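Progress note, project year one: complex with 6-deoxy-beta-L-fructofuranose.
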Amino acid sequence: MIKECEMAVDIKDVKQKLKEQKIETPSWGYADSGTRFYVFRQKSAAHTLEEKLEDAAQVHKYTGVCPSVALHIPWDKTDNWELVKRYAANLGLEIGAINPNLFEDDDYLLGSLCSPDKKVREKAVEHIKECIRIAEITGSTIISLWIPDGTNYPGQDSFRDRKARLEDTLSEVYDALTREMRVLLEYKFFEPAFYHTDLFDWGSAYLLSIKLGDKAQVLVDLGHHPLGANIEQIVAILLDEQKLGGFHFNNKKYADDDLVVGSINPYELFLIYNELVAASLDKKTERTARNVAYMIDQSHNIKNKIEATIQSVVNIQQAYAKALLVDRDYLKKVQREGLVLDAEECLKDAYHTDVRPLLKEVREEMNIDPDPITAFRKSGYLEQAAGGRSSR
Ligand code: LRH
Ligand code: MN
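Model obtained:
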């Protein structure tokens, strides 16, 4: 099976790229979460930031590719960020993207950065500046900014006035970034607003990122598109424009379901990685492709949260491995010759390659157990956590 691919790709190079993969896990993925209907609490769920970091360290221990954790403010708020940075470092982790929260405050009823009320806009900008100060201490270089603003009824507000407010408030945020930092603009086509959303698609985020400057890029959350949207095409365009900053990986069947990435549509995840690998081999886009931030953004309502996160990482590793096995010279040739079926079959050859043996070899060479979930289960960590953590 591996033999098949050896012709087209250098397996040593593929293995090296898989060993260098970096996937950031979300602190909120380890805590109790649910739907508006109910939260099924888990005895082993994390409640404190320390517990979330300990769980993230387990995911890194058993996958070897998750050295950083994204935080959400104020969900992870603390008064000693130096201590948090050291605590994480002692667990072999770094603090990753800082996510401001512009959706959990009474003042944001009519919006945050787009609110008609200047006081509210200033409050939202001040909150993001607080997140920038936190990032300076934790050594984070990414402010991951989802703007939930929108309206629920026609006539409620002016689209263009809100657009002007957003450009104005975000330029103040942009000027507050340090030289090393970048702000990733996360769009979403609806929810919590149900008539219009101010940052609703890749185009609105791209436009804004162009107006702001090089330190502003677009974040693609896989759950934030209308059904039928061609996300791999959006990824290709943003790469080509050097404006793809990162991902929030998850999967959906209907709306923003935040299910395990690759669980519903693994072919889509492969096609997204196919665009990323192609861009990494192209002089015009390789730098952007190299700096893409791969982050998971999920809520694990019924699966064990640590196991679901490990499963997510494995799904991402498999998608990347398959994309690295695509015979790109042959693909280019048949594409140029208009051999449609052959081009599609070239991709499917890689997609249908069982890369699990390859990934087991890679883990062994990284001195970690070839079967992460089984190894984690054997560790007894969950039973210990369930015993030691108070079910609040
Ligand atoms: C919004 C979102 C955003 C986060 C939240 C947890 O749907 O994707 O990235 O802030 O989920
Ligand atoms: Mn997200």
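The first strand starts at residue 25 and ends at 26.
Residues 1-5 have pLDDT under 50 and may be disordered.
No further modelling is planned for this target in the current period.
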